[in-house]
Amino acid sequence: MSVEPETRLTRQRKIILEELRKVDTHPSADQVYEMVRKRLPKISLGTVYRNLDFLSAEGLIRTLKSAGSQMRFDGNPDNHYHLRCIRCDRIIDLPISVFDGLDDKIHRITGYVIIGHDLEFQGICPICGQESQKNEGRATNESERHKN
Question: What structural domains does the chain harbor?
Answer without folding.
Answer: 1-74 (1.10.10.10), 79-148 (3.30.1490.190)
